[in-house]
Each structure stands twice: as structure tokens, then as C-alpha cells.
Write a structure and sequence with these properties.
The complex is a heterotrimer.
Chain A (H helix, E strand, L loop, with lengths): L3 E2 L5 E2 L6 E8 L7 E8 L24 H6 L14 E7 L5 E7 L1 H5 L3 E6 L8 E2 L18 E7 L2 H8 L3 E6 L6 H4 L12 E2 L15 E2 L2 E9 L2 H6 L3 E9 L11 E7 L2 E6 L4 H12 L6 E4 L14 H14 L3 E4 L2 H7 L6 E9 L5 E10 L11 H5 L6 E8 L14 H19 L3 H8 L3 H11 L2 H4 L12 E12 L8 E7 L4 E4 L9 H13 L6 E4 L16 H28 L6 E4 L2 E4 L7 E2 H5 L6 E7 L12 E12 L4 E12 L6 H20 L30 E7 L22 H13 L10 H9 L6 E2 L1
Parallel strand pairs in A: 5-18, 16-17, 20-21, 24-25, 31-32
Antiparallel strand pairs in A: 1-2, 3-4, 5-9, 6-10, 7-9, 8-11, 12-13, 13-21, 14-19, 14-33, 15-16, 15-18, 19-20, 22-30, 23-24, 23-29, 26-27, 27-28, 30-31
Helix pairs in contact in A: 6-7, 10-18, 14-15
Chain B lengths: L32 H15 L11 E4 L4 E7 L2 E7 L5 H8 L18 E4 L2 E4 L12 E3 L12 H8 L9 H14 L5 H7 L10 H12 L6
Parallel strand pairs in B: 2-6
Antiparallel strand pairs in B: 2-3, 4-5, 4-6
Chain C lengths: L4 E5 L2 H7 L5 E3 L3 H8 L7 E4 L9 E3 L3 E4 L5 H6 L1 H6 L1 H8 L4 H6 L2 H6 L47 H8 L3 E6 L3 E6 H4 L17 E9 L5 E8 L10 E10 L2 E9 L7 E2 L1 H7 L6 H10 L13 H16 L12
Parallel strand pairs in C: 1-3, 2-3
Antiparallel strand pairs in C: 4-5, 5-8, 6-7, 6-8, 9-10, 10-11, 11-12
Helix pairs in contact in C: 5-8, 10-11, 11-12
Classes of the chains: A alpha+beta, B alpha+beta, C alpha+beta.
Chain lengths: 797, 221, 333
């Protein structure tokens, strides 16, 4: 062990204890805030107070790259143009299920402008047979229409497209199934000849691998807690509902794709990705080259929502073509391919029963769920049922149903919008049955301390007070209602979160990490942290991210980025600043402990010298650069782990004559630990709400039942909300400190909006019309059918 | 486009003839377009001097191979060598390297590719590049002048009206076009102006706020 | 898109001289480029009429209105005279597609756009309208398709402008080099699929629409058009209604009720019209007209919900036309 500078500036002797005890703010200011003790490593920076006492952190600092984005200067992967770059186009399967007999690329290879053709030997994304011998074929089996088979690289996009059309694929068609219910039948065509599993992928994709498979049904994956039969015996009332949700595609505006430049000494890949590390790892593994021989760059990316991890087929094929041709190769999917082959949110078919006592105590939660992740797995949706409410007993069964459609991938809070849609409506059903206010019931069943505060905020809001006391009571064909839904998400920590801070002798400051910004504004937050530490405005900080040449950053899935990386950034800033002060102190005639960094200056607390600007102080450095690199250390106290989430309240208008639902207002109350940048956090919450509304009312991946092809692989008939669908959104950010890291920040992408808004809409519709809609999307056809013949959940005494 | 500009017809041409039933006196609309048509004529004739035998002089045949096309973009003239099938979006992005304009759906249903033709917002993915000849094309790169942001761009940054940023150029061009023709829109009018623009990250509320901020109309909370 | 030659024209005669040997007209290019990008058409020669100034403009004549076919949807919807006297057309053009498309799309192109059925638009489905002998919608996904008057093909009429122009009893002038001009009513412009599945309208390959003529409405005429989608921002119609009312004070002397999203070609509803003729327009009579507006409808497997929507679209648009109700905030576009 080496000597080191402790936080009070004094040299700490080797052999000192590794931890120190500090007091950290824990709880919600104005409600439950208190000081709690934590034992933290001695090298950790001083504890930050709550946001009101910080200068830059917790402020709505302007987005770091806002100017670049509004001016068109931001360069995305699809904008990258390199000298000699070739354009690649996939050849995709035109049938939903087949063995490939032959692939004739002769005509394509001869086509003017073509420089290389690649035939896929191993297609990524689909589930993989446990016994590969069951598929003794030369080429991968086609398991969905749109599955990539080969690719052509040419000097122009048009040449690549035309040549790709000349690749002749001969298929041996296999019976297929695209209807989830039909796929469950005993005599359904088998999507796989045996049991198959999809590997877990970043962000929560993939499903369990230790379950049985019967025909196309992969599962069940069962979780039990307590005795479920006894739980129902103990219940005074039982409420049941059957809920069905649809397959949704991510539909990021920038499609998947890369520009790959394979040089002998280095493979450089610009990728539209949520994880520069994940792309590098997959390319390294796939091509069996060292990680040091792969560099991934993501300056900007146009949305991911969970689908963009790893190199995938686009990355691997582009790299192969670049290696083959000796030129950089650009392979960006078109919109149709984007819908078909790079992921989706699985459907769900859930039967949920909840038993409770008269006073609202839940005694039993029983969920049986089936969902299709296409030819992949990952349709589980039991998260909310298992983690939102206390229950005497719990029994969940989750099943993946294979169909011949594109494999799913993680999509913003995998499984949770589906699960919450069913759970939160069933809980509201319970409230109706028990004649309890929905908030009172949740106060009884949900012991999460922060959601309790959030429900209190909702209870006191004008919006909630305007809720109909009696469901369906308002007159006229346009009926208004208010309802709420809750969310839960988890504080996943990526330990692969590193940052380096450099101070230069000219006074310039920079922070570097391999992390990418998927739209959350992590660059801004990083600048704010350095600003807080060094006392200079965030606009003076240079932030460099999105490059695996930098210290490794986390993959942005599971809402880990801010939570995982900011402590590393802060720790690096702290350590760099301490080194800096120790370095310049002698030249200033002071001790390091006497120096503070405030308002762009270095000051002597004891008045040994007049304040000097940071820049003049940096000029006194004894070396040109001082740097510190830090990694994410574990949370301070795992025993104090707390999930997080919030409450969404929706006000809807239901046009009962047209079956149309319009969401007029949303009140969204959420916590994200310490909000690092409220404006950016609110932007994300808006985004989750809007995506959730779109999912609840409109979107649907539609497959023709007879031919197995998607009929709406576009952005016109695949319907995403536009400007006129947007409600008035009010966000109340709840600061909720948990005392777990040097920044105490959490993510928000999945915790807010997307999980809870669907149920809030469902509950609001019930409040409006007295009928519960248990199916999404809630199109006019669905709403009118429900209004005509409301399918009530079964209620038994 | 201005309603008040005096309507013109092409002098010397039989644009208005009794046969078509359109009288010169009754020609109520068309200001600006006829002028553009004249310019296009010039533009077309300027770059193609060949006409096939027997082709009337009012027809110019181009392609299918590459032809030189003169585009006026962000105040500067550019000549690109492109096939007639090249869309304006492709010409801007690939031939001119102006990648601020994005291609998202390639079908004119998301307005991610919005540029101005003479201050009129159009989908550049559904416009042939040759149809831009004779018009002033403005892209997102041309909205700011001399490193000074357009007030709307500054407002977008101030209100954090972006996340991943991919829809942002199209949104900015759409909202800025609105402000050109209607400096004080209501929120309803702003929503209507971007009703064809898709954003997957959900930046709409702040886009409305930013545009209304520039318009000087306070947005009710 | 496939490679093509393009003949850039600045006169009608020049354009007509080019319409031969498979050449196709390009006006705004909105629907044509869509079809080409979807790979369902690969014309090798385009005749670009977009710059023919004489085909653009709106003029008042002694008998009504003449609109050049290159006039854009935006120009039509914003035109003061059309807004005041031909509201149904302003409504229809002003809510079609998206704002930016309306800036480029021409009314002529809009009238001649092909059906939007997703099977038709996909190169993977070779259907009856493309010369083969299967319709994929009957046994497939048909939630957006027709509920009446279909036999061979249930794709619905796609043009909102046509719904409005039918209500206004408009006609189009077609011109060709060899046969000169002819006038066709909007109703006769479209060919029903059973008559000729691959020919959507009567325009011959060597013809251009050179004018759209609308007779002057009778004094006291009020009109409106509304369409409803699943989305409000922009969407194809799942139900729509065009209404033209000739009023004597509060009483309706004559009504024309048209729709596009119910049937393969634009249609009128004589039953709804009869229900309003001679009546005072109020909620009761409007709803009665709505109830009979789709008499005889036979839904497909997935679109029975349209039976609920059309009566509502009709009654609300009747009341809007009569000035008794505001534009429906949930109407699309």
C-alpha cells in the first residue's frame, strides 16, 4: 500500500484503514430527508450536499452538444463518408421459414460497381439450438422473412441494391407459423426442430436458458414465493384479468448500421450503437482478433431504445466485406430491414389473478404469461408483479412462444410496460372491488418509501382531484377520465464504467470515456461534474466520449449510464484536482489543504495570496498535464439497495362514438436519485411517456397470417404518435437520495413513463367510461368492441 | 409564398390560351411559381444543349446516365453529376457532403429530410434533385449565417428540444419555415406545422415551447 | 428506384409528345416515387410536367372554377375563394398527407394516386391490381379496407380530393396529342376493379389531366370534409365524409354526401342525401342521415368497426357543413 493524499490534504500513512465513515443525505427533501451513515473508501470525494447547495450539478445546464445537433454539424454513423468507401446492401430472405438450398452470387459479383459479396454463415440474433446437429445445413436456416442471407458491397448505393437483387437464393420451404396462439397448439409448425435459446444480451434481451420447451413453447420459467394456494385461500376477494399486448418495434430514427474500415493493424468501426464496448467485444470474438485491434467510434447516434447492442449482423458483415475488399464499407439498414431484423418488444398474453383481504393487504399474485419474441426469446413480463407490491405469495410463469418472425431484443424496460399494463389495471380492479381509493390501496400494498411520497404528490394534485368519483359518469359522447399507473425499475450498475480527467497547463480541462450518448445528455452531466469540482463553468469543459480508445465506458442499457459513470467521473475529477492542488501548492507558498477551487479561481483559504484564475494557476503546473483515471466502485451499502420508479397520471378523453382515445394531460412524478440535470431528465421522461402513449394507442407489428410477411414495415402504417397526439405533460422530479455513490445519481430512461403510462391510460379510460380495456393498441376497433361488450375480468368472492 | 406578389405569366408564351379555358385576367394564383418556372427553364436549357431529333424545344431529355445539374444551396451554386433518379436528399448528403439533412423513412412520411425550396418546407427524399433546379434550396446547414445561430436554433438549445438529435434538423427546418410565414403562431399552429414530423425520443413538448418562445407567445404550463 | 430517363417539359404539347412507349407522367412525384421506391413500378422514362406553368393556377370562370392540375394541395387549401365557396375542397386538400407533402403534391397527382392497400404497395405480393389473380386482403389483414361495393378488390379509394370533387360535381379535362380533349366527370374518372383491375382510372397512357372544372355552387351552398384516422397527426382515413348542402335558410334543399374510405372508388350515399333533402339540419336529422349513409355495407373480417365510424363521420360533417358544429378536434390531418 502506498501513501496517499487524504481529503484533508494531509499525507495518509500506508496501512491506514481503507474506509471512513461519512454522513450522507438520504431520502426526499421536504418529506423524508435525513442523514445516514455510510462507510466509504477513504479515497472517495467529500459527500455532496443535496442539489440546492451545489452550483452546477443539479442545474438545467444547456445540453453540451445542443449547438451541434441544431446546426446539422453533428455527425452520425449514417453521415460518415470516407475516401473510397463502399456501400453495402443485405440480401434478405423473402420467405418466413426455409432451408437455403443454394446461393448463387455470380451475377451479383459481375455487376458493375460491385467489389465484394459476402454470404452469411452464422446469422446473429436468432435463438440457437441446444443440439445443433438437428439442423445439419450448410447455410443458416431462415426463420423469418427479412433474415439477412448475404450482402453486396459496391461503389454506389444503387449498384449495391441492384446487385443484391441479382443474388439468386433457392429455398426449400418449411411450414411456418406467425400467429402466437396458433403457434402454441400441439400440431403447430415447429419454428425450431428442438429446444433453442437466445443468449442474454445487453440491456435485458434474451430469455432464460434453463427451461423446457414443448413444441414452440419455451418455458415455463417459474418463480414462487410463499404458498400461492394458501394465499388465495386467505383472500377475501379475488380479481382476475386477461391482458393482451402487441409486438412493438424500436423504430429509432437512425437505423442500425456501421461504417467498417478493416486495416491490417486495426479494424475501425463507426457504429450507431448504445455500447461502443459491446460492438468491440462482439467483433473481437467473432473474428477472433484481440480487443486491442478493434476501435469503435460513436460520436452521435440516432436512438436505440435497447436494440443497438453488439455488432449484430450489420456490423459483422460490414467488417467482413471491408476485410475482403480492402475498402471501408458502409452498411446501414433501410427502414423495412429495421422493422424486421434488429429487434422488437415481445407481445404478451397475461392471465393475472390477485387475491386480497378486505383491507387491501395482498395475499396472492398469480401470473401466467405467454409472449412471442419471434424466433428469439425474452418475452418475460413478471417484473412489475414481482417487484411493485408486497404480497403474501407470488407465483409467476413466463413462456416464450416461438413464431417465424424477427427475434426480439431488449426494448426500453423489457417486459415492464406489458407487465405493468396488466398489474396496474388489476390493482385498480381490486380497488373498485374493495371500494377503496386507488392511492389508498397502493399506500397499503406498496412500501417503497419514495413512491409513497410520489403518491402523496399525486393525491394533492389538481389533476387527481379532478378524477371522476364515479367511473363513466360524465354525460355526452366524449367522456373524460383520470387514472394512474406506477412503475418500478432497478438500479443496475455497470462496473465497466471508467473516466479520465486531464488538466492541461493552459488551463483547459477535459474528461474522456468510451461511453456513448444515446440522447440522455451524458456529455452535459460529465461537464457539470467537472465544473462542480474545478469551479469553472461547464462550457469550459471539453467532453470526449464515444470512442473505445478512451477508458472503457458502460453500455447504455438498463438505465445504467448516469448511475454507473458519474461516480467514476466525479472520482477522477476529485483525484485530478487533488493532484493538481498538491502540484501547484508549493509554488504558491501554500499547503494543498489551504487551496480551494471556486468561481474559476484558485484561492487561499487563509489569505496567503490573492485569488488567481484557474488558468494562471494551471500555468504553475510542474508538468504539462495532470491526469487521473477512476473506475466505478461498488455501491456503498448493498443492504440499503432500493428500486426506484414513480407514478404517472393520465387524463384522457374517450370519444365513445368513434372509439378514439386522446390523452390530454399527464402528470408524471418520478425520482432518479439525485437529478444531475433536471431539463435533460425531464426530456427523457417526456420521451418515455410519449413512447408509452404510442405503444398503448397505436403501434403494431402486423404480420400477414397466410404468407408470414410484415405488411407495415414503414413509418406510415406502422403508426407512431405525432405532434397532435402529444398531451400537456407536467413532470415533478422528486429528488431521492440513497447514499450509494459519490454522485448518488440514477438513470431515468426506463423508470419513467414507458412502464406506467399504459396502465395510467387504461385506468383513466375506466374512469371515463366504466369499461376496462385490456388490450393494446387501443385502436378504435378495440375500443368500440370493448364499449359494446365489455370483457369483464372474472371476479370471485 | 407571398399572396400579394403580382401574378405574371410567361411573356411571349401561349401559357394562357383559349383552349385551356384559363384566361389571363382570371389567373388568380401562381405568383412566384411562374417565375420559378422561368428560372427552371433557363436552368434546364443551360445544362443540356442536346435535344433528340424531333423533340420540341420545350422538352429537354436527361439521363438515364449521369448529367450535370446545377443546384443553388444555402446561397451558393453547386454543380453535381447525378442520375435523374437521384433525390435531393441524396444529392445533398452524398454529392455535396451536407449530411445535416437526414434520410429516415425515405417515403415522405416522417419529415426528417425537410429542406426549404424557396422557403417552402418539403421532403427532400421525395424530391428529385433535378426538381430543385432553379429554386433556392436551404438546408439546416444554411439556416444559421456567419456562425450566428438562427433564433429558433438558439431556442431549441435553450429549451432542450432535442435528445438523440436525429429528427432535429427536420424539426428546426419545419418550425423555422412556419415562423417565416407566420411569426406569431399559436400552439395549435405549431403542432400543425410539425404534424408530419416524427420524433422517437419524444421531444415534441419542448419543440413547441422553443418555437412559441421565438414567436413571443407564452406557452401555458 | 430504377434508373430512368426524364423528359423535362415546359409546355403541354411538349409533354403530350413524350407520352408514348411506356413513359409515365411525373407531376409532384409523391405517389410515383412511392411506387417506384416500393418496387412495384419501374418506368424507364418519366415525363416531368412539374414546370409547365400553364397547368398551375386557380381561376374563376363564368361557370365556376378551373384549377390547373399542378396546383398543389397547399395552394388549393389556402386559397381564399376555395375556403369561402368550396370549403369541402379546401378541407380535403388541407388535411391530406402531411404539411410538407401538401407543398409538393399536385391535385392532379392526388386524383390519380393508386390505392394504398399494403398488399398492393408491396413488391412481395403480386395481386389482382398488378395483373395476377389473387387478392390477399380478403383472407388477410383488411382492417383498413372497404366495407361496401367491393367485388374483386376491397382497397379503398385513396384520394380525399376526389371525395370533395365528387361532392362538387367536378369534372376533369383530359388532353392527348392524337385525340385532343375530352371531359370526364370525377365519378367516371375511376374504374372499378371488377371492370379492369389493373387500370385504376380512365386516363390513357398518352393523356394528361389539363384542367379540373368545378361548377359554381348554388347560392346558399355550404360544404365540409372531415376524415378520421387512428392517428390525428396524419393518417389514411378509416372513415371520412364529404358534405355539400344547398340551403334555403335552415332547410336543406339538396344534399350531396360523399366518402372515400368505405369503397373501392369514391361514392355518394343516396340514402343519406335523401334523409336530409327538405329537412332542417339539426343533430337529429344529421344522425339519421349518418345511420343510413352506409346502407348495404358488408364488412370484411377485420373492419366491422367502420360500420360504427361512418355514421359518426357523416353526422358530424353534416353539422359542420351546416355551421352547427365546430371542426372535430380529433379529425385527422
Amino acid at each position: 500500500m502506498t501513501n496517499r493524499i487524504a481529503e484533508d490534504g494531509l499525507l495518509e500513512q500506508a496501512g491506514a484503514p481503507g474506509k471512513k465513515t461519512v454522513e450522507m443525505p438520504v431520502g426526499v427533501p421536504g418529506y423524508t430527508l435525513a442523514q445516514e451513515s455510510r462507510d466509504v473508501p477513504v479515497a472517495e470525494p467529500p459527500v455532496w450536499p443535496t442539489n440546492k447547495d451545489l452550483k452546477y450539478v443539479g442545474q438545467s445546464v444547456e445540453r453540451y452538444d445542443g449547438a451541434a445537433k441544431v446546426s446539422g454539424q453533428a455527425r452520425y454513423t449514417s453521415d460518415v463518408q470516407l475516401p473510397g468507401m463502399l456501400y453495402a446492401k443485405f440480401v434478405n430472405a423473402s420467405v418466413p421459414h426455409a432451408r437455403i438450398v443454394s446461393i448463387d452470387t455470380a451475377a451479383a459479383e459481375k455487376y458493375p460497381g460491385v467489389r465484394g459479396v459476402h454470404v452469411i454463415q452464422h446469422v446473429l440474433g436468432n435463438a440457437v439450438l441446444r443440439n445443433p446437429a438437428l439442423d445439419p445445413v450448410k447455410y443458416p436456416v431462415v426463420r423469418y422473412a427479412g433474415q439477412p442471407i448475404a450482402a453486396v458491397a459496391a461503389t454506389t448505393p444503387a449498384a449495391a441494391e441492384e446487385a443484391a437483387a441479382l443474388v439468386k437464393v433457392r429455398y426449400d420451404a418449411i411450414p411456418f407459423v406467425v400467429d402466437q396462439n396458433k403457434a402454441r397448439e400441439a400440431d403447430a409448425p415447429a419454428v425450431f426442430p428442438g429446444a433453442a435459446d437466445e443468449a442474454a444480451s445487453a440491456g435485458g434481451g434474451g430469455g432464460p436458458t434453463d427451461v423446457k420447451q414443448t413444441g414452440n413453447v419455451h418455458g415455463p420459467s417459474i418463480h414462487r414465493k410463499g404458498e400461492i394456494d394458501q394465499g388465495f385461500k386467505d383472500a377475501d376477494v379475488v380479481v382476475e384479468g386477461h391482458y393482451v399486448t402487441q409486438v412493438q418495434t424500436h423504430s429509432a430514427l437512425e437505423t442500425h448500421g456501421v461504417v467498417a474500415d478493416w486495416k491490417p493493424e486495426l479494424l475501425t468501426v463507426w457504429a450507431s450503437t448504445q455500447g461502443t464496448s459491446s460492438v468491440r467485444e462482439e467483433l473481437s470474438a467473432f473474428f477472433k482478433i484481440p480487443l486491442t485491434q478493434v476501435r469503435v467510434i460513436t460520436e452521435y447516434m440516432g436512438g436505440g431504445f435497447g436494440a443497438k447492442f453488439g455488432a449484430g449482423n450489420p456490423g459483422v458483415v460490414a467488417a467482413a466485406l471491408s476485410k475482403k475488399t480492402g475498402s471501408p464499407v458502409r452498411l446501414m439498414l433501410d427502414r423495412e430491414e429495421e422493422h424486421l431484423s434488429v429487434g422488437n418488444r415481445p407481445s404478451s398474453d397475461q392471465t393475472l389473478r390477485i387475491g386480497a383481504k378486505k383491507d387491501g393487504t395482498i395475499t396472492a399474485i398469480h401470473l401466467v404469461a405467454y409472449g412471442t419474441a419471434g424466433c428469439g426469446t425474452g418475452a418475460g413480463c413478471s417484473g412489475p408483479a414481482a417487484n411493485l407490491y408486497k404480497s403474501g405469495s407470488l407465483h409467476t410463469e413466463e413462456n416464450d412462444v416461438f413464431i417465424n418472425a424477427g427475434p426480439a431484443s431488449a426494448m426500453r424496460a423489457p417486459g415492464h410496460p406489458q407487465g405493468a399494463f396488466a398489474l396496474e389495471q388489476t390493482i385498480d380492479d381490486l380497488a373498485v372491488k374493495l371500494n377503496m381509493d386507488p392511492i389508498d390501496l397502493r399506500d397499503k400494498t406498496d412500501d417503497h418509501p419514495v413512491r409513497r411520497v410520489e403518491r402523496q404528490i399525486v393525491r394533492e394534485s389538481d389533476l387527481w382531484k379532478s378524477r371522476n368519483p364515479v367511473a363513466g359518469a360524465s354525460p355526452g359522447p366524449i367522456k373524460r377520465g383520470v387514472g394512474l399507473g406506477q412503475s418500478v425499475w432497478y438500479r443496475f450498475v455497470s462496473m465497466n464504467s471508467n473516466a479520465e480527467v486531464r488538466i492541461h497547463k493552459d488551463g483547459s480541462l477535459e474528461v474522456l470515456s468510451g461511453v456513448q450518448d444515446i440522447g440522455s445528455g451524458v456529455k452535459t452531466v460529465m461537464a457539470q461534474i467537472l465544473a462542480e469540482q474545478f469551479g469553472v463553468p461547464p462550457s469550459q469543459i471539453s467532453v470526449k466520449i464515444g470512442d473505445t480508445n478512451h477508458p472503457q465506458g458502460p453500455d447504455s442499457g438498463g438505465s445504467v449510464t448516469t448511475l454507473s459513470l458519474t461516480p467514476a467521473v466525479r472520482d477522477a475529477a476529485w483525484q485530478a484536482s487533488q493532484k493538481f492542488l498538491a502540484d501547484i501548492a508549493p509554488g504558491l507558498g501554500a499547503t494543498p489543504a489551504d487551496l480551494v477551487l471556486v468561481d474559476g479561481e484558485v484561492r487561499s483559504q487563509s489569505g496567503k495570496f490573492d485569488p488567481i484564475s484557474f488558468r494562471r494557476a494551471a500555468a504553475k503546473m510542474t508538468t504539462s498535464q495532470i491526469a487521473a483515471q477512476a473506475k466505478r466502485i461498488p455501491d456503498y451499502d448493498p443492504k440499503k439497495y432500493l428500486t426506484y420508479g414513480g407514478v404517472d397520471v393520465a387524463e384522457v378523453e374517450v370519444d365513445t362514438e368513434l372509439g378514439r382515445i386522446h390523452v390530454r394531460r399527464v402528470l408524471s412524478v418520478h425520482d432518479c436519485g439525485r437529478p444531475m440535470n433536471p431539463a435533460q431528465t425531464i426530456s427523457q421522461i417526456n420521451g418515455g411517456i410519449i413512447q408509452g402513449i404510442s405503444y398503448t394507442l397505436l403501434e403494431n407489428r402486423l404480420l400477414d397470417p397466410v404468407y408470414g410477411l410484415m405488411v407495415n414495415p414503414d413509418l406510415e402504417q406502422y403508426k407512431i404518435v405525432g405532434a397532435r397526439e402529444i398531451p400537456e405533460i407536467e413532470v415533478r422530479l422528486v429528488e431521492a437520495y440513497i447514499g450509494q455513490s459519490s454522485t448518488d445519481a440514477s438513470g431515468i430512461g426506463e423508470a419513467a413513463g414507458v412502464v406506467s403510462i399504459g396502465a395510467a391510460i387504461g385506468n383513466a379510460v375506466y374512469n371515463a367510461v366504466g369499461v376496462r380495456i385490456r388490450q393494446t393498441p387501443m385502436t378504435p376497433a378495440v375500443v368500440l368492441a370493448a364499449l359494446r361488450a365489455p370483457a369483464q375480468g372474472k371476479e370471485t368472492a | 409564398m407571398s399572396d400579394s406578389a403580382e401574378e405574371k405569366t410567361e411573356s411571349g408564351k401561349t401559357a394562357d390560351s383559349p383552349r385551356t379555358g384559363v384566361t389571363r385576367r382570371g389567373f388568380l394564383k401562381g405568383a412566384g411559381l411562374t417565375a420559378a418556372g422561368t428560372a427552371l427553364l433557363d436552368g434546364v436549357q443551360a445544362f443540356s444543349s442536346e435535344t433528340k431529333g424531333g423533340t420540341p424545344a420545350s422538352v429537354t431529355e436527361l439521363g438515364p446516365g449521369p448529367v450535370p445539374v446545377r443546384l443553388h444551396v444555402n446561397g451558393a451554386e453547386h454543380t453535381v453529376e447525378i442520375e435523374p433518379r437521384t433525390t435531393l436528399a441524396e444529392a445533398l448528403r452524398i454529392n455535396l457532403g451536407m449530411t445535416g439533412t437526414k434520410i429516415v423513412c425515405d417515403r415522405g412520411v416522417c419529415s426528417g429530410c425537410t429542406v426549404w425550396l424557396d422557403k417552402m418546407p418539403v421532403n427532400s427524399c421525395m424530391t428529385l434533385a433535378i426538381d430543385a433546379v432553379g429554386h433556392h434550396v436551404t438546408t439546416i446547414e444554411g439556416l444559421s449565417s456567419d456562425d450566428k445561430m438562427h433564433p429558433l436554433q438558439a431556442a431549441f438549445v435553450k429549451h432542450d428540444a432535442m435528445q438523440c438529435g436525429f429528427c432535429t434538423p427536420g424539426m428546426v427546418m419545419s418550425c423555422a419555415a412556419l415562423l417565416e410565414r407566420n411569426p406569431h403562431p399559436s400552439e395549435h399552429e405549431v403542432r400543425h406545422a410539425v404534424s408530419g414530423n416524427l420524433c422517437r425520443c419524444g421531444t415534441y413538448p419542448k419543440i413547441f415551447a422553443a418555437t412559441l418562445d421565438v414567436a413571443g407567445t407564452a406557452r401555458n404550463a | 428506384m430504377n434508373r430512368f430517363a426524364i423528359a423535362d417539359c415546359t409546355s403541354v404539347d411538349g409533354a403530350l409528345s413524350q407520352l408514348k412507349d411506356g413513359a409515365v407522367v411525373k407531376a409532384g412525384g409523391v405517389d410515383l416515387l412511392d411506387r417506384m421506391k416500393d418496387g412495384i413500378e419501374q418506368p424507364e422514362k418519366l415525363v416531368n410536367i412539374r414546370n409547365i406553368a400553364s397547368l398551375r393556377g386557380i381561376s374563376e370562370t363564368s361557370t365556376g372554377l378551373t384549377i390547373g392540375p399542378l396546383t398543389t394541395l397547399a395552394e388549393i387549401s389556402n386559397h381564399p375563394l376555395i375556403r369561402s365557396d368550396y370549403q369541402i375542397l379546401s378541407d380535403a386538400c388541407g388535411h391530406a398527407a402531411t404539411p410538407h407533402i401538401r407543398n409538393m403534391a399536385t391535385v392532379g397527382g392526388n386524383l390519380l394516386q393508386r390505392v394504398q392497400c399494403w398488399y398492393y404497395r408491396s413488391a412481395d405480393f403480386q395481386c389482382i391490381r398488378k395483373g395476377k389473380d389473387i387478392c390477399f386482403a380478403f383472407g388477410g389483414l383488411n382492417q383498413y379496407h372497404a366495407i361496401m361495393e367491393y367485388t374483386t378488390c376491397p382497397a379503398v379509394a385513396p384520394s380525399s380530393a376526389a371525395v370533395a370533387l365528387l361532392g362538387l360535381n367536378a369534372s376533369v379535362e383530359l388532353s392527348s396529342a392524337r385525340r385532343g380533349k375530352r371531359t370526364v366527370s370525377i365519378k367516371d374518372l375511376y374504374i372499378e376493379p371488377h371492370a379492369n383491375p389493373t387500370k385504376f382510372n380512365v386516363v390513357e397512357p398518352d393523356e394528361l389531366i389539363t384542367a379540373i372544372m368545378i361548377p359554381k355552387p348554388a347560392p346558399g351552398t355550404r360544404s365540409a370534409y372531415q376524415k378520421y384516422g387512428e392517428k390525428e397527426s396524419f393518417d389514411w382515413a378509416i372513415a371520412d365524409a364529404g358534405v355539400v348542402l344547398e340551403m334555403d335558410g335552415d332547410t336543406c334543399r339538396r344534399a350531396v354526401i360523399t366518402m372515400g374510405a368505405a369503397s373501392p372508388v369514391v361514392r355518394r350515399s343516396p340514402e343519406a342525401e335523401a334523409a336530409l333533402t327538405g329537412k332542417i339540419i339539426n343533430e337529429e336529422t344529421a344522425r339519421a342521415a349518418g345511420q343510413v349513409s352506409i346502407q348495404g355495407a358488408k364488412p370484411l373480417s377485420m373492419n366491422a368497426y367502420k360500420l360504427d365510424l361512418f355514421p359518426v363521420a357523416v353526422y358530424r360533417t353534416v353539422l359542420l357543413a351546416a355551421g352547427k358544429r365546430d371542426r372535430d378536434p380529433s379529425a385527422a390531418g
